[in-house]
Design brief:
Helix content is 27%, strand content 22%. It is of the alpha+beta class and 592 residues long. Helix 3 packs parallel to helix 4 (117-145).
Amino acid sequence: MMLQRRDLLKAGGAVIVGFAFDALAPRWARSSPQRAGAAPRGDDSKLIDPAEVDSFLAFHADGTVTVYTGKVDVGTGLRIAVAQMAAEELGIPASRITIVDGDTGRCPDQGGTGGSTGLTRGGAEVRQAAATARQALVALAAAKLNRAPGELAIAGGEIRASSGDGVTIASLVGDRRLQLKMDAKAPLRSPSSYVTVGQPLPRPDVPAKCSGRHVYVHDFTLPGMLHARVIRPPAIGATLVSVDESSVRAIPDVTIVRAASFLAVVAPDEWAAVRAAATLNATWTEPQTLPEHVFAKGAAAKTCSATYFWPFQSHASLGPSCAVADVRADGTATVWSASQGTHGLRGNLSKVFGIPQEKLRVVFLDGSGSYGTNGGDHAAADAVLISKTIGAPVRVQWSRQDETGWDPKGPQQLIDVRAGMDARGAIVGWTTDMWLPAQAPGARALLAADAAGLAQEHGQGAGAITQNGDPPYDVANARVLVHWTKKAPLQLSNLRAPGKIANVFAVESFTDELAAAAATDAVAFRLARLTDPRAIDAITRCAERFGWDARPSPRRAAGSGGLLRGRGIAYMRYKQAENYVATAMEVASCRR
C-alpha cells in the first residue's frame, strides 16, 4: 500500500526530488518556506562553488537580489545581518534582499554554523562576493554610459554619474548570471560610508513567528507524508530481542519498521503513531546501567587550590527534534532538518545510507531552539532510514522523553586549579588539570545507524572544550594539562560555547580566591595583572558603570538584619582571541 501511494504521488507530479534549484528561479520560489522543496528547474550544481560569485548572489529583473549562504540562522539574526552586509556592498536597500540559508542544493558549503563563524566567515564571504559583483557592475555601467568607473557611484540599486546619467543594476544583469570568480582584492566599502550595516533593522522572520505563520521544520508537510515514532531501548547498549506485532493490531494502518535493533512505527496519522509507539510490545536485552564516571585527580599542594565540576547537560530545546525525509525509488533523497551543519549532515547521511551526495539534498528549516547540536541530526537519520525502508515521505518527531534521554549531551568537565603567589601578590605559578571526555575522530555517530547496525565513522564531537582554560592574567609559570578519559558514558555534543562556560567559571572563580588570599579588591587584582588595553578598558568601564566600590569580601547591609550583600566581577576574552566581556553583579541573600 505504501508503494501504491508513492506511485500516485509520482503520477501527480507533486513529489519533491533531491536536485538543486535553478539559482534564477522566481523570487517567490526562494523566499517561501512552503516552497522549499519545489521541483528544480535544471541542473545548476556547477554554480554551487564558493569560488563563484553566482554561488552567493542572484540578481533579478525586478531589482531584488537573492543571497545564498551555507550558514544558517538559529535565532541569532544571521539572516538580517548577512542581508545588511550584502546590501551595503551592493548599494541597495536590505529590504530588497532575500536570504536562502543552509540548502545544500542551492547554497555553497561554508561549514557548519558554530564557533561564531556565521558572520566572520559566512557573512564575510557573502560581503566579498557582493564587493566583487559591485566592481563588475560599475565596469558594465561605465561601458554603457561611456564614463570612467571612478565617475560613477552605486546606490539605491542604480549606478549613476554626478551629471545624473545612470542605469539600474536590474537592467544590467537582471535574471542573468555574472559568471565571475570571487576577487579577494575587490575593495570593500569603508565603514565611514556605511548606511545599512549597524542599523537596527527588523528581522524578516519575526512577523511570521509572532503571528504563527512561520513554517518550522515541525510544521513542514508533504503530500502523502506519513508520521513515525522511533522506539528506543530502555537503556544504552540494550539490543532488540523480539517484537509483538499483534500488540498494535487494534490501531489502523500502522506499519512496523525494524532494522536490527532499530524499531519504529509509522502511520498516516500522527496520533496513531504516538499511540502505537506506546502500545507496541518489544523485548530488549537486560538494561545496562550507566557506568560510574569517576575522574582521577592529582594531589594539589599549592598556596591556593580549588576544584570545579560541570555535569553533563541536555540541550533541552524548546521543542523536541524533528525532521522530514523523502527517499525515492530513483535513488534521490531530500531531507528537511534544523541542522546547524546541513552540508556536514548531507555527507554523514550519504556515507551511512549509501546515497550519493549529488543525489542527496538537505534543506534547512527553522527548529525550536538549538543551543549547539541537539538531536536534530539524529532525527534526520531516523527519517531517512524509515523513508528508505517504506518508500514514502516520512516525518519523525521526537518526544520530550526522547529529547532529554537520547540527545547528545554537553560534556562533563572536572577542573582542578592550583596556584601560588609571592609575598608581593604576584602569581608565580598556575596549574590547571582538566578531566574531559575524549573526542574521537570522525563523524558524529547517528543513533539510527547504530541501532540498525549500519557502518559509520563512530565519533563524538563536543567542540573545542579546552578553550579559555588558561588564565588571561600575568602568570610567571602557567600550565594547562588535559586528561582525556577513554570513553564517555553518553554521546557528546557542543552545547553553547562548548567548554568555555565551565572553564571561564573556574578561572574567574579561582581568580577571586587568589584576590581574597591577597586581601585585594577583585577589580584591582585583575587590573594589576593585565597588559591588554582592551581588557583593561572592558573591566574598568564595567566597574564604573556598575558603581563598583572596592571591598574584598561580602558585607552585611546596614540595618538589614541577616541580609548579606556580595558583589562580584568576571572577565573573559572569548577563545582568548575574539570579543572581550566583563560583567558585574550584586547578590543579596538572607543568612540563616
